[in-house]
Amino acid sequence: MKINSTTIPLPIDNIDTDQIIPAKFLKQVDKKGYGKHLFRNWRYSEGDSQEPDFILNKPERKEATILLAGNNFGCGSSREHAAWALADFGIRAIISTQFADIFKGNAYNNGIVPIELEKEQVNVLIRGSLQNPNLKIEIDLENQKVLSPALGIKETFDIHPFKKQCLVEGVNETEFLINLRPEIQEFESKRIQLP
Hints:
The chain has helices at about 15-20, 40-45, 80-90, 100-110, 120-130, 160-170, 175-180, 180-195, and strands spanning about 1-5, 5-10, 65-70, 95, 115, 135-140, 145-150, 155. The chain is α/β, with parallel strands linked by helices and about 200 residues long.
């Protein structure tokens, strides 16, 4: 699986889940429809008009699927709605120096690749993206690489093998287990036959 995209640079540390998706919008249990509220308090004024200077509202960022974030992204309360909003908006990967643990798990479970790199590399990517909105970054999940030839970036990232397999197959942990049902049933039937 490869993600090749322009990026959304958001170099702010400690972005919490309430900033990602404000609590007043958490009124549904369906994962769809939250993207319109992503970073709501930053993207819109009180009259619901777009803030033209906010990065997600820039026309050249509309097709981007990679978010470049500051340190400790996704901290705060453990609402999975934050990952739902990012995924519904079209974010497929987030690059940061660190993620809050619960948010990181929620990202994986919703098909978002959370990538941790050293601060220097993240800063190079953010600066490059700010200078050139058309700059593309490639994420090669199978080989665990972040590539940007224009910036001289060829970084390896760590990912748990099971999480990687789920992302490559496009399933969450529960769906992965459900897909193993035939093998589980076969094992159980053989086990029952043992003396």
